[in-house]
Amino acid sequence: MNDEKNYLLADFSDITPTPCPCGQARRAFTREDNAVASMHVVDISADSRAHYHKKMTEIYYVLEGTGRMELDGEEVELRPGKSVLIRPGCVHRAVGNLKILNVPIPAFDPEDEWFED
């Protein structure tokens, strides 16, 4: 009989932020036995760094603040309630005073962060 639960639970208030190209991320569901998707709450920093992923798709959902997203050289305005799906290969960065929910699919892999510089 399997003693594993058929769900995962996260409390973002218990997750320590970690630096990322966009700022500070609290990452949930990043266990080795979960490759499907993860979920991050990210505080965007003023010096966020443009990057891309070769395998991962990301969905950004703006929780708080305003700013913009740079996507393959184009810019879109961001505000609470807006969402962006970022496909693999799209060079991107968020800029502004923002808190976002990020859903990486498949689950976040630090080896899949690439920079052009």
Describe the structure concisely.
With 117 residues, the chain is an all-beta fold. Helix content is 0%, strand content 45%.
Q: What does the overall shape look like?
A: globular
Order of helices and strands: EEEEEEE
CATH-wise, what's the superfamily of the domain at 37-112? Jelly Rolls
Secondary-structure-based class equals mainly beta
Helix content: under 10%
Q: Please provide the count of β strands.
A: 7
Taking the sheet with the most strands, its summary is: 7 strands, antiparallel
Q: Report the span from N to C terminus.
A: 51 Å
Total of helices: 0
Quaternary structure classification: single chain
Low-confidence stretches: none
CATH architecture of the domain at 37-112, by name, is Sandwich
CATH class of the domain at 37-112: Mainly Beta
Relative strand content: over 45%
CATH topology of the domain at 37-112: Jelly Rolls
Give a written overview of the molecule.
With about 120 residues, the protein is mostly beta strands. The protein has a domain at about 35-110: Jelly Rolls. Helix content is about 0%, strand content about 45%. The protein contains no helices and seven strands. Strands 1, 2, 3, 4, 5, 6 and 7 form a seven-stranded antiparallel beta sheet that branches. A hairpin with a 2-residue loop joins strand 4 (about 55-70) and strand 5. The radius of gyration is 14 Å and the shape is globular.
